[in-house]
Amino acid sequence: MEQKMQEFLAKYEIAPCEHIETVLDTSTTCLVVRGCVGSGKTQLFLSRLAYLLESEAAQKEQMLNLVVDASSARMMKQAYRERYGCEKTPNFVDIFSFAYRIVSFYDEKNQNTRKVFSNMQKAADKILRAQFKLICSNVEIERLLQKVYQCKLRLLNEKRIAEIKMDNIDFAAFYNAYEKFKKQKKIYDKADVLQEALHILMYDKEMLELYQQRFAYITIDDAQELSYAAQMLIRILQAHQAKLCAFVNPQVSCDLTYDADATIFDAWKDDYEDYKEVVLTTTHRLNSTLCELTNRFIPSTMTTASTEECEIKYKGFSEWKKMYDYALKRVEEKEEVAFLYREDAIAIPLIEHLVSNQIAVNFQWNIKSFLNDSIVKDMVNFLSLFINPRNMRAFFEVHKYMGLDMSNRMLLEIDGIMSDQPQMDIYQSIIASSYKASGKRLLSSYMEDIREVSGGTTFDMLQFVLEKFAYDANMRKERRTIQDPVWIALQILAAKYPDPREFLEVLRGLINISSSEHADVYVLPLRAAYGRQYSCVCMIDCFAHIYPKFKGNAYEGAFERRLFYMGMSRAVHHLELFTAKNCFGTRLEMSPYIYELHGKRKEASKPKAVSSRLREQDFKRGVRIEHASLGKGTIKRVKDGMMEVVFAEENKMLNIKLCIKNKLVKLV
Predict the structure, then answer these.
(1) Is 38 annotated as a binding residue?
(2) 39: annotated binding-site residue?
(3) Was 41 annotated as part of a binding site?
(4) Where does the record place the UvrD-like helicase ATP-binding domain (predicted)?
(5) Which one of 103, 256, 354, 421 has the minimum C-beta count within 10 Å?
(6) 3-state SS record for 532-581
(7) CATH number for position 80
(8) For 7-64, what is each residue's pLDDT tens digit?
(9) Do 587 and 624 have their domain in common?
């Protein structure tokens, strides 16, 4: 080992470890470090950068240090300073931010301006509705945009794009409409930025020479998350002059949105004469139990340096309240706990529950997106109307769901009647207005139930809207179901806060809940846990419609599997996987990954047969049933062996024992 390297290791008390000499060697043109989860790749990455600066092989301005995202850039900067001090802290940047700098510099030179949007879901939805007369779910739109980004980041030509097939839509036509929409609005998405940066360097020799001369060393952490276009951009910059070092773990390559491609590194050995590769197969993070579990889920030769064992817990909860109460208990027992989720809405009741119990939580959430969701806004307006039947603003927003088709002129007339007659509410004003007779009759058929539910609980109100006004049908039109995470979150909060006024106050107060950055309790989206580790990890939404979320083909399936693997492998000592059997009568299926990990094969799902084995205690408020002659309904209340059930046409009081004995009902 050369003298400078020995002095560096001694100065920072770095114990010689596997392949440290190769990683610190500054003479190799191309080095690929393949490592498993917890194998020390990040420490080697930072050590290489520190050694380049310490040995004066490069100034920090000559180094391009790429990480997976902006959050990782901040984390790396902090980790570097803690380990090597602040005197020569290198810069860290993600590939999209770096590409944006290239494009911005080019635009500044040429007096251009561009607006870049990271989320194009609303734009895609608008195009689908306006030009294709299609209503798609958020998942379908997300998948469609992924396909668009893949076309850009794989640099596909028009012929290849025209060959792409998707169910229920002409993909090539949508792609062209999407591009035309952006051109008209003068906006760009993130994939455009990367593609444009590559185009600039390919065709602007002055820009290319400027960037090639600037960077002497290019070092990439989590290089498996780079797309083909990103890797082409790096290859152009490197051009066999800069020293290239990439740290790769293909098992956690899980960026499906921006088309991660870890296979390209396999070709580097043929492209570079001075190519070296080292492999790290020992994990210093996972204990023996977790190592065996993850190796079984995605076959690997990974071994562990730990002899520690632990119990993997598969927690299936009969009620959501029990799930969150258990999470509270887990927090009290463990020093560090991370609750990881994929769907933002599922985490909202958990964060509220922990904070309301005086637990400091380090969290990331897009609460504005939740509060602006159409389901949330509709339910807030319905509850506001039930609480105050003179709330014209709320009525204006939801009257269409009540089957009351009203023009703006009619709404103004009703508002005017209320202004002149302060003792009258909206419903009385409608009856007194010139509104059509059929509409008045429909309203009259609702009135007794509306008056009754107005004095009920929050949960009663939500169920009333779902059943009486057939709001679930509206959800289906929007390609959403009662398994939607947003609807589940609302029901959980409604069950916790039965007073509708308090419920609305809690919803409004969510925006004011602050994250505690130094707390040891984390509630984070799965992607935010990338590159991190926690003593105890609880994955809280292990349901079949969430894992796997995309089931289109083997390519998507492989990404889904790696994403779940990434979540499990954040744990150091303890792992728990949460599911729930139902949500207030709505049956939920657990993820097939849970069956696989638990060593049990999933049975083919069968319709639940009508059976005398049903028990009286199975029939509770909120449970959905199907009656042999009355159809599907929801139990509103249970008392003295009788249950009141809300069916589509009417409410019925049914004797529970007789229904079971005569096999008239089944749970749905």
Answers:
(1) yes
(2) yes
(3) yes
(4) 14-287
(5) 421
(6) CCEEEEEECCCECCCCCCCCCCHHHHHHHHHHHHHHHCCEEEEEEEEEEC
(7) 3.40.50.300
(8) 888 888 887 777 898 999 888 889 999 999 999 999 999 999 999 999 999 999 999 9
(9) no
